[in-house]
Design goal:
50% of the residues lie in helices and 11% in strands. By secondary structure, the chain is mainly alpha-helical. The chain has a three-stranded parallel β-sheet with strand order 2-1-3, sandwiched between helices. Helix 1 links the parallel strand 1 and strand 2. Helix 3 packs across helix 4.
Amino acid sequence: MPHSKGLIGMSKKLIYLASPYSHPDPAVMHARYEEVCQIAARLMKQGLFVFSPIAHSHGIFQHAGHQTDFEYWREYDEMMIDKCDEIWVCDNMDGIKDYERLTKQTNVV
């Protein structure tokens, strides 16, 4: 399927927005979700097409996450990365230094 054209004729790209999420404290996970939602919203207001696995899946995780292991989410992330044109990393978020999953995500590309 071809990409839609922007106002100045440039192809729109789908951006995979990688960010930290996992943490033993559910309050920290929720705070990370809120922060990445704000970041994604700012980018979308600029006209960018953004897929954030955290922003788009946090609610689902709350219902299925404890029954769905990391391997499921890794495969899900890999599939979404394949569909995206670029990976952008929220490198100023708390927890990014310890974000083991980010390394696994970016090694997929």
